[in-house]
């Protein structure tokens, strides 16, 4: 009798400690749209998952879809668990999370600072690559306010190799030696072999930024005049793959009307499979509501190549590249705005700035102490987007999705 009572007591204690752990957690993802969605990233709270599983946050977990196929995931800096989902039109799908050893995940999203190239920060995913310019470039006096675009035509990571080739000191020593003895043709041929301005089979840098918003940069507008941000002051890489890259940039103080110490902070996030970067912008020390725009530069070689639609939530431009006469294709640039009150328009300069004529803009109202969230990015005619119609359809679909987000519940 005593043995039976003791056994029951031990089992009860063990149940309280761990025997009662649930075997799994179910994450239900519902698509409210009448069109299917594939590869979209969802987020769930890490703390909630581990609490539901009654596990320490150091325990390993695995995620399975409804076909019992393992799904890759990433833990992010802000304590979210992210993973890609595929959901049909107007349906729900369930993903199962349980304790286990996950398979290795191939890194498809990566970026870093390149102090060896004037403090560039460049990043990429399996679809596109991007760059922001840094303090060393600003010190040289070059004006390059906006985001730069590197085209890609392959899914694997390529930017690191591009910089390594472009900045190879041994090759540049040979180039300079050839130039010194008058062998310009041989020197130029060697430059072309290492330059990331030449497509070596995986894409290139053929986009011009200059003193503009470039490929989708945001800026406050004071009395309809763009208050250009300059190169970032400080940076922090918050996530670096395998599925998401997140970068925080802080900028030097701006003067906006009566506010002389307005400091901009951007958090830029690029996920696997997406052409667009989610960007969250905040301005401290801004005392009144102010228009804020996401903008794309318009170049003279395609003065009418822009499109915009406030109702559908996007702006777009078909950029003819830095050498329109070459076989560099078309770089498609776009921005998407979740805010249904966005206003869209074209604003030309009083006079051209080099070959830049102005911008196509999406304008929202920034309220002090809030976030301005929008998306910007690119596609290429040599990698998935044959026409401008293909690109604008992508942007319209993307805008519908961010305005009607997937609904996620945890059981």
Question: What does this molecule look like?
Answer:
The structure is a single chain. With 411 residues, the chain is α+β, with helices and mostly antiparallel strands. The chain is built from seven helices and 25 strands. The strands form five sheets. Strands 13, 14, 15, 16, 17, 19, 20, 21 and 24 form a nine-stranded antiparallel beta sheet that branches. The model is unreliable at 1-20 (pLDDT under 50).
Shape: globular
Sheet bearing the most strands, described? 9 strands, antiparallel
According to DSSP, the number of beta strands is: 25
Question: In angstroms, what is the radius of gyration?
Answer: 25 Å
Structural class: alpha+beta
Query: What percentage of the residues does DSSP assign to strands (E)?
Result: 35-45%
- Total of helices: 7
* Head-to-tail CA distance between termini: 40 Å
- Extract low-pLDDT stretches: 1-20
Average of pLDDT: 94
Short description:
This protein is an alpha+beta fold.
How does the SSE layout of this entry go?
Elements: H1 2-19, E1 25-30, E2 37-45, H2 46-53, E3 61-64, E4 74-75, E5 80-87, E6 92-99, E7 110-114, E8 120-124, E9 129-132, H3 135-139, E10 148-150, H4 159-166, H5 169-180, H6 184-194, E11 215-222, E12 225-227, E13 234-240, E14 244-250, E15 254-256, E16 259-271, E17 276-284, E18 290-299, E19 306-309, E20 314-319, E21 331-336, E22 343-353, E23 356-366, E24 372-380, H7 388-403, E25 407-410
Antiparallel strand pairs: 1-6, 1-25, 2-5, 3-6, 4-5, 7-8, 8-9, 9-10, 11-12, 11-18, 13-14, 14-16, 15-16, 16-17, 17-24, 18-23, 19-20, 20-21, 21-24, 22-23
Helix pairs in contact: 5-6
């Amino acid at each position: 009798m005593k043995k039976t009572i003791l056994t029951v007591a031990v089992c009860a204690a063990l149940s309280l400690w761990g025997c009662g752990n649930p075997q799994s957690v179910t994450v239900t993802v519902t698509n409210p749209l009448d069109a299917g969605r594939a590869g979209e990233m969802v987020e769930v709270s890490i703390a909630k998952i581990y609490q539901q599983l009654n596990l320490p946050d150091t325990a390993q977990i695995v995620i399975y879809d409804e076909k019992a196929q393992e799904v890759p995931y990433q833990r992010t800096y802000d304590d979210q668990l992210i993973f890609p989902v595929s959901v049909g039109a107007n349906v729900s799908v369930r993903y199962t999370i349980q304790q286990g050893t996950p398979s290795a995940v191939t890194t498809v999203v990566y970026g870093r600072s390149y102090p060896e190239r004037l403090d560039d920060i460049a990043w990429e995913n399996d679809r596109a690559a991007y760059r922001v310019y840094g303090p060393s470039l600003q010190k040289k006096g070059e004006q390059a306010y906006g985001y730069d675009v590197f085209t890609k035509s392959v899914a694997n990571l390529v930017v690191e190799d591009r910089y390594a080739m472009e900045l190879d000191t041994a090759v540049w020593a040979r180039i300079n030696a050839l130039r010194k003895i008058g062998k310009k043709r041989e020197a130029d041929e060697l430059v072309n072999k290492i330059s990331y301005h030449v497509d070596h089979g995986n894409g290139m840098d053929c986009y011009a930024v200059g003193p503009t918003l470039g490929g989708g940069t945001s800026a406050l507008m004071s009395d309809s005049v763009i208050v250009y941000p300059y190169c970032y002051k400080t940076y922090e890489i918050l996530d670096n793959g395998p599925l998401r890259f997140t970068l925080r940039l802080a900028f030097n103080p701006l003067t906006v009307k009566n506010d002389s110490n307005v400091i901009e902070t951007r958090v830029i996030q690029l996920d696997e499979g997406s052409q667009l970067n989610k960007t969250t912008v905040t301005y401290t020390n801004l005392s009144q509501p102010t228009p804020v725009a996401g903008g794309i530069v318009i170049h003279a070689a395609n003065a009418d190549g822009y499109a915009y639609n406030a109702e559908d939530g996007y702006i777009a431009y078909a950029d003819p590249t830095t050498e329109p006469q070459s076989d560099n294709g078309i770089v498609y640039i776009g921005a998407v705005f979740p805010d249904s009150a966005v206003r869209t328009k074209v604003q030309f300069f009083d006079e051209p700035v080099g070959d830049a004529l102005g911008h196509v803009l999406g304008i929202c109202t920034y309220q002090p102490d809030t976030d301005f969230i929008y998306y910007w990015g690119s596609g290429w005619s040599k990698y998935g987007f044959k026409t401008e119609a293909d690109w604008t359809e992508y942007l319209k679909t993307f805008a519908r999705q961010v305005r009607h987000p997937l609904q996620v519940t945890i059981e």
